[in-house]
Design goal:
The chain has 287 residues and is an alpha+beta fold. The chain has 2 domains: 156 residues, Ribosomal Protein S5, domain 2 (2-Layer Sandwich), CATH 3.30.230; 117 residues, Alpha-Beta Plaits. It is 32% helix and 28% strand. It has 9 helices and 11 strands. α1 runs parallel beside α2 and α7 crosses α8. The longest helix is centred in the middle third of the chain and has 16 residues. The protein starts with a strand and ends with a strand.
Length: 287
């Protein structure tokens, strides 16, 4: 049996680095993540040995190192037996190192799929536990909803956005930003608070107006990452010059998000920026 299904990306509407664990060095986060309708396409079919093949991807990822492959093996460890071998083909639409969680989304989508395909009955809590051992972003994608995500990424509080008065444009600059490198840049600038602090992130549950959203959206990574990659600040300003009311980086980068208040301005920006950058996409949030 051959099945194909989407694996949606995400954007960060807010990312606060609120502390650091002294024992592990990992950072405590407060984030608002929203799935979007930009999606990789995953095809799964039976074969004689398990392998993961990635298509339309600039980076070569060996099968055994792919998040999806590791998810399959983690499920086998959790259930105590081998699964029937599968060939998993991932047609990438989300750039790597783009801050949109493409690999984590792939892992979550395949985890959901094999749970259904083999009638494992894992349940959300167990799937999140399996996923957390592979990647901290994966549990978010298992909830299929906008969410406040905290801790190291393992605490997920889904919610429904009351109103989101923007049209979105994504622009990738043509180069990635490594997540570990982004954290190192943050630490180098000594921006990390020594202890977790309280944020106002719970305001997101009642946001509705354009003004409220404009005041809420932020990304702590922008300060150190823009200094290291000045082309991103140039891109942000270019998107704003094309009519966006706000432009910001998602995740640890490098994708920039432009917020537009009407379709005409977004369409004009899309046409202009498509002539300058290889990846420009009109997207919507899945709320």
């Amino acid at each position: 049996m051959k099945e194909t299904f989407p694996s949606p990306a995400k954007i960060n509407l807010r990312l606060d680095i609120v502390g650091r664990d002294a024992a592990t060095g990992y950072h405590f986060l407060e984030m608002v993540l929203v799935p979007i309708d930009l999606a990789d396409q995953i095809t799964v079919e039976e074969t004689d040995h398990t392998e993961v093949v990635t298509e339309n991807c600039a980076e070569h990822i060996p099968s055994e190192k792919n998040i999806v492959y590791r998810i399959v093996r983690a499920v086998e460890t959790d259930i105590g037996r081998e699964l029937p071998p599968l060939r998993i083909s991932i047609r990438k639409e989300t750039p790597t190192g783009a801050g949109m969680g493409g690999g984590s989304s792939n892992g979550a989508a395949v985890l959901d799929h094999i749970d259904r395909r083999f009638d494992l009955g894992l349940g959300l809590e167990r799937k999140c536990a399996i996923a957390s051992r592979i990647g901290s972003d994966i549990p978010f994608f298992l909830h299929h909803s906008a969410a406040v995500v905290s801790g190291f990424g393992e605490r997920v509080r889904p919610f429904r956005i009351a109103a989101f008065p923007f049209r979105l444009l994504l622009v990738h600059p043509g180069f990635p930003v490594d997540t570990k490198g982004a954290y190192a840049l943050w630490d180098k600038k000594m921006l990390t608070k020594q202890r977790p602090v309280t944020t106002t992130i719970d305001r997101v549950f009642s946001l509705g107006s354009l003004t409220e959203w404009m005041d809420f959206i932020r990304n702590d990574f922008e300060i150190p990452v823009f200094e290291e990659y000045p082309a991103l600040a140039v891109l942000r300003d270019r998107i704003a010059a094309c009519g966006a009311v706000r432009a910001f980086m998602t995740g640890s980068g490098s994708t920039m998000v432009g917020l537009f208040t009407d379709e005409e301005r977004r369409e004009s920006a899309f046409r202009r920026l498509s002539g300058e950058y290889g990846f420009v996409r009109k997207v919507g949030v899945l709320i």
